[in-house]
Amino acid sequence: MATTAHCAYCFEVLLASFEGGSALPLSAFSKAIEAESSSSSLESSASPTSSSGTYRTAASATDGQMYPMFVTWNTVTSRGGVRLRGCIGTFEAQPLEKGLASYAKIAAFEDTRFNPISAKELPTLECGVSLLTDFEDAADPLDWTFGTHGLRISFVINGRRYSATYLPDVPPEHFDSKEETLGSLVLKSGYSGAKKWDQLGIKLVRYQSSKAKLGYPEFAALKKRLGVV
C-alpha cells in the first residue's frame, strides 16, 4: 500500500515549494519504480514496510485510490537516530496524490509544535507516509494490540470534546503499557483536569496502517537513477 514512490513524491512537493517550481506528478515516481521493482538496488536503498514489516511494491496502492493518511517528517541525527520534525494527517479519505501533496506541506510548515522546515534541512530529512486502514470501534479503551493498532480516542467533559491519536508505531516506541499510552493520549488531547483516563468515558477507535519511509539522500539518488530530475 504505502510505497517508496509516495515518500519520494512528498519530497518532490517539498523541494518544489522551496524552489518555486512545479512538482513532478506521483505517477512519474510510481511508474518508474514499478518498472524497476525487481532491482535489488532499489530494495536495499529504501525498503518501505507496512506495520507488519511486509515489503510493498509501487503497485500496491494506485494513484487514483483514496485513503486517510499521515505524513511524517523526521530529522536523521549524525548518529543515525531520528527525531520528529513534523507529523500531520487526516482521517478523512483523500485522493492519494492530492492528499500527499497537501499533507507533505502541512506537516512540514504548519505543525505548531515545531518551526517550519527550512530548505537547508533537506539533506537531513526522512519522510514517512502512513495510509490508514481497518478502522474498528474498540469494545473498551484497552481493546487494542501493541504494534498493530493505531488509536484515536475521544471523550466529552463539561460539553467540550477532546480527541487525540497515535499512529501504530508510536505506542511500542514510547510506552511500556496500554495504560501509560492512554494517559499520554489524554494529555495530548488537551485535557488537564484531575480525572484519570479510566474515568473519562473514553471512546476508542483502533486502526491499522501501511507505512513507507525514505531518506533525502535516497530520494536524490532515486531521481538521478530514474532520470526524473
From TrEMBL:
Pfam families: AMMECR1 (PF01871). InterPro entries: AMMECR1, AMMECR1_dom_sf, AMMECR1_domain, AMMECR1_N. It comes from the Eukaryota. This is AMMECR1 domain-containing protein. Residues 27-223 form the AMMECR1 domain. NCBIfam families: TIGR00296 family protein (TIGR00296). PANTHER family: AMME SYNDROME CANDIDATE GENE 1 PROTEIN, AMMECR1 HOMOLOG. Coiled coil: none annotated.
